[in-house]
Amino acid sequence: MNEAGGHLESARDDRTLYVIVWAILVLLLVVGLTIFVLPIPREAAVTLIFGVAAIKAALVLRNYMHLKREHLLIYAIVLIPTLFLLGFAITLIPDIVFRHAM
Amino acid sequence: MSAGVEPAGVAITERDTIGKIPPGKIAVWWFLASEIMVFGTLMGAYILFSFAHGDFAADGAHVKWRLGAFNTLVLVTSSLTMIMALASARARNLSRTRLFLLATVLLGITFLCVKGYEYTTEIDEGFTPSTSIFWSFYFGMTGLHGLHVIGGIVINSILLVAALSRKPWDILERRIECAGLYWHFVDVVWIFLFPLLYLT
After folding, report:
1. A15 touches chain B (CB under 8 A)
2. Fewest CB atoms within 10 Å of the CB: B30, B66, B129, B196?
3. Could you tell me if A50 and A75 lie in one domain?
4. Quick one: pLDDT at residue B19?
5. What is the ipTM of this complex?
6. Within this chain, do residues A51 and A99 fall inside the same structural domain, yes or no?
7. Does residue A92 share a domain with residue A44?
8. CB distance from A34 to chain B under 8 Å?
């Protein structure tokens, strides 16, 4: 197969993957809504719903934003603010717990 | 080549690997990093406020989760059409590129129309940003997200015009890729906003 043919084949594979990812995203939306309407204990339902949301976000990031093929520099650009954010949130938790929850 | 020259050669290769990332793409990722801070801080504040000020479930029961679910479907589908526009641009298929860009724009407008309808009914029912902390967060976060959707629609419309005026493929492809990164990020934000505000 020549280079152009290989490129077209690869583009077709990518398009198939994109449609499969979309179908999984729709399925996960239905799963999240099913968890919401079912009589599941609230804490368990919230955990499951956000678990499903995290999987959906990871699918978009990896496949549509092509993070799985990206350079380490891009990972660093994304991870550094995410870690800062988690750090800020964690440092505020003791304040919430001691002021309001106790 | 002498042994002394080899390290310089290796260094150039490594630099070239980083240099292969288009500057525009790095700029978009930097912008998205700042957006992670903006939306992440708002979501973090919402979660901490919900712990501190009791449950938001009573207020949250009044939001229209069915419309929110429909809008999630619309936005996820628009992500598919956006990535298909990029794939079509890479395959040098102009008509499909235009079609998928137009579909993305129309789905973005659909999202805004549904959101507008939601706002109208909620305000009619007496829920405004000043009603409670929950509604302040609700209108603040969905409003900011809506502004990002408007921004995405404007960018995609500009790209659609560029596709209609037959811009060179390499420029068009690179711009669609950068606009796509932004559009998918807006989708990721909604993927978390929807359960946070509508389902919990």
Report:
1. yes
2. B66
3. no
4. 64
5. 0.86
6. no
7. no
8. no
Q: Are residues A10 and A50 in the same domain?
A: yes
Low-confidence ranges of chain A (pLDDT < 50): 1
Query: Does B80 contact A32 at a Cβ distance shorter than 8 Å?
Result: no
- State the nearest Cα–Cα gap between A58 and chain B, in angstroms: 9
Distance set, CA B147 to CA A55, A57, A61, B144, B169 (Å): 25, 20, 21, 5, 29
> Is the CB of A46 less than 8 angstroms away from the CB of B200?
yes
Say whether both A58 and A15 belong to one domain: yes
Task: Give the DSSP per-residue string, B13-40.
Answer: HHHHHHHTS-HHHHHHHHHHHHHHHHHH
Domain that residue A93 falls in = 70-102
Q: Are residues A64 and A15 located together in one domain of the fold?
A: yes
Co-location of A83 and A51 in the same domain: no
At A96 the pLDDT is 75
Does B32 sit within 8 Å of A22, measured CB to CB? no
How does DSSP assign chain A, residue by residue? --HHHHHHHHHHHHHHHHHHHHHHHHHHHHHHHHHHHS---HHHHHHHHHHHHHHHHHHIIIIIS-GGG--HHHHHHHHHHHHHHHHHHHHHHHHHIIIII-
Please state the separation of Cα A73 from the chain's center in Å: 20
Mean pLDDT of the residues in chain B: 89
Residue B118 CA, distance from chain mean position? 20
Chain A CA closest to residue B70? A29
Cβ–Cβ under 8 Å, residues A22 and B76: yes
